Automatic annotation (TrEMBL):
Residues 357-376 are annotated as: Disordered. This is Glycosyltransferase RgtA/B/C/D-like domain-containing protein. The keyword Transmembrane helix applies. The chain crosses the membrane at residues 103-122, 129-145, 151-172, 179-195, 201-217, 224-243, 274-294, 306-324, 330-349. It comes from the Bacteria. Keywords: Membrane, Transmembrane, Transmembrane helix.
Amino acid sequence: MLASNVRLISHWNESRGVYDDICYLRQAHLFQRFGWHGLDTSLAREDDGYLAGKLRSIDFPNWNDPTGVPCHTQTADGSKRVMTPPPGTGFVLSLFPEGFQVVPLYALANVAIAGFALYALWLARQPGALALAATFGAISIYFMINPTKASYSMAPTMVVCALAGLLTARLYADESRRHLLMVAAVGIVLGLSASFRIANVLLAAGYFMYFGLFFLVRRSGANFLQGLSFGLAFLLGILPVLTANMVNSGNPLVSAYGGQDTAPPRLDLAVLRAYLADVQFPLIVIVCAWTTLLWHFAKQSGVKRLALLVAGNLALNLAFFATHPVFTQYYIIPIAMLSLWTLLFAVILTPGQTQLDHAPGSDGPRLSEMATADAK
């Protein structure tokens, strides 16, 4: 499947007529031309005809009209027009030579996802876990073409979701790994995800809710430090987005997005029906069922808490996208994949009570204690 994906990707054309593609490629062009000063996406810097040439290549009407350029908005003070997408996708595209950027980005992202799938297979020790790893690994590689091809921002997002899922599962499935550095690693990875898609900031919403509620229920210095560590690491990870906002809009907390992207939440039956008829709906059903089963059958308290974390994060993300005024085939894919990778690695890392018995700090009795009891 990986070889088939790479072969298919190798024939892709960067001028496929999608407006957002042009903007991501322009951000990459700015980074290659100006270095980190490429964060400034003002149209005033468009003095080499790059954007106009890209728009002409897709037959964009009025390609030479600055007021009609796609995914660019005017700042609040009216001083300039800047790009709306965050800088992360453009940055990773800038790592490859101009004109041959999308193919290597998607090929490497596919290899990375296949690597996570193979790692899950290598960790699996029981037939059931092995079957889960094989099935989900195949599905995740398939998703790297459809729906990931719909937006360049989705390729790095899928890799980040797999990494965050693995780190989250290790954090809660193995009590011995629950320390501040591991919590910080999850936070910084989720923070960096917002650099690819600004909506990815929601992937951390459930984590903030979990750490906050857990501290209120069990007030201790350790729980407070975990939440603080996650928050500071997330802030560090999202720093590129805040910097880009500051450069382009003059305020780190104000993005360049406008129109429907910043509309207040509302229920739209047409949007809800679109999600129900899309492949995203059965994915969410699978996540809900798997989370419920994991919480019900888990013998370790850490795994039960992990299930609650996944459930809360999923609920917050679904509440946002269900009230978003626009439907897109990949909007719910990031939270679905983050949840599924987390659940998969949680099952693999805790295949049975026997393995948990060996884990330092586990809630159940150790094998040695059980053997002593049997001898008595």
